[in-house]
Amino acid sequence: MTVNDDSFTDWKNREEIAESMIPLIGNLHREQDVTILLHSRSLVNKSVVSILKTHRFARQIAGEELSVTETLPFLKALTTLDLGPSQIDIGMLAATYRADERRLSVEEFTAEAVAGATGDNKIERREARDVVLYGFGRIGRLLARLLIEKAGSGNGLRLRAIVVREGGAQDIVKRASLLRRDSIHGQFQGTITVDEASGTIVANGNEIKMIYANDPSEVDYTAYGIKDAILIDNTGRWRDRAGLSQHLRPGVDKVVLTAPGKGDVLNVVHGVNHETIKPDERILSCASCTTNAIVPPLKAMADEYGVLRGHVETVHSFTNDQNLLDNYHKSDRRGRSAPLNMVITETGAASAVAKALPELDARITGSSIRVPVPDVSIAILSLRLARETTRDEVLEYLRNVSLTSPLKRQIDFTNAPDAVSSDFIGSRHASIVDAGATKVEGDDAILYLWYDNEFGYSCQVVRVVQHVSGVEYPTFPVPVA
């Protein structure tokens, strides 16, 4: 047998193992509301090749071998336990088991590591929480995709309605088509049908009512059977408490804004300050995509090295706020053609840091350039640290943060030498540290942070909604603080 034959045989064996994992992952998700992760990446509804690629990527960033042959025993062990709703990272289980010196069996170690999700510690399944989308643009449609995806277990969040201004003939058909096909994010994973007579979109069995209204005051959500809903305003039309309070109509309990909030509206970056949300808070903001991209790594660096001051320069993909061709715009420069120019503009991300990370006693400044790409941006974070360090130390620290810390869902890490922006389309992290571009000299550090300003941000929004709705299930093994 040749070397090539050996490689091919190994691949086929790993394919067979990955295929055997799919029904185990699916049953845990549907029957026990358990989401199986691999280093923060969900394996639910993934193909054989996707499972293998996720293992391969985990090996790359972890620097150690990790294959399906190692993770399958932990997955099998989980199927024997009476688990409650939770997220369980089999990559972390494999890594911590390898470092454990007690010589426990896989079954014993797994039962101990996820004990918080079993027995008296097990939380009960909760009723699905109604969600309403107010607006159905770029972020609204990605939120719809995520909410439909997360409804697979029949619990958690349930998208009940979408509120828009009617656009004319076949409005619902055209909006369903935009949900079905996306030029950047690809095809919707599943099936979508439209019932024009009832004004309903059915996506993967989820019935979603299309409500037409020009103003929040026109809608009584209880008329559609909606109760205690979380309404996500992704229009950006209102940003202060008075404006957003208009959404607190019959059937709506809380309002979440997908833009920076003004005044006393709490700006939340999941993973950093979401625990500060008070149970009785009814209006909050998820800040901006750039704020979500820079605050988690800024917190990580401040925790380990201290930060005296910093500057963030964002090189941001163009958005619908800009003009396709030169035309009037209320803002300076944004009226110039977005796909033809680099456009200097302002960013509120730097000033928003103080709202999400008030304990950071450092001045952070910021500026932004819009560039002719439709999605994925990069933030260049230049920091003066409180102590000197080395590039290798910073990279090793951030790599570990991305794998084992409470910020591992927010911060990703890549050491791919030829990474470019399109590689990060569809990333579910708030930002991705580019190891190859990182620069450190003494107490100066420059981090290059990629982020999918559409999808990664939408994932952060959904995490906040899950938290305030009470369906953000615990993750095991518990990340190291």
Query: Residue ranges: pLDDT <50 for 5 or more in a row?
Result: none
Q: What's the overall geometry?
A: globular
Share of residues in strands: 15-25%
The CATH architecture designation of the largest domain is 2-Layer Sandwich
Rounded to an integer in angstroms, the radius of gyration calculated over CA atoms is: 23 Å
Looking at CATH, the homologous superfamily of the largest domain is Dihydrodipicolinate Reductase, domain 2
Question: What spatial order of strands do you see in the largest sheet?
Answer: 8-9-10-5-4-11-12-14-13
Based on secondary structure, the structural category is: alpha/beta
Q: Give me the number of helical elements.
A: 12
- The CATH first-level class of the largest domain comes to Alpha Beta
Provide a short characterization of the protein structure.
The protein has twelve helices and 22 strands. It has 481 residues and is α/β, with parallel strands linked by helices.
Walk me through the structure.
The protein is α/β, with parallel strands linked by helices. The chain folds into three domains: 3-121, no CATH class; 129-259, Rossmann fold, CATH 3.40.50.720; 289-456, Dihydrodipicolinate Reductase, domain 2 (2-Layer Sandwich), CATH 3.30.360. The chain contains twelve helices and 22 strands. A nine-stranded mixed beta sheet has the order 8-9-10-5-4-11-12-14-13. Strands 16-17-15-18-21-20-19 form a seven-stranded mixed beta sheet. Helix 3 packs across helix 4. It is globular.
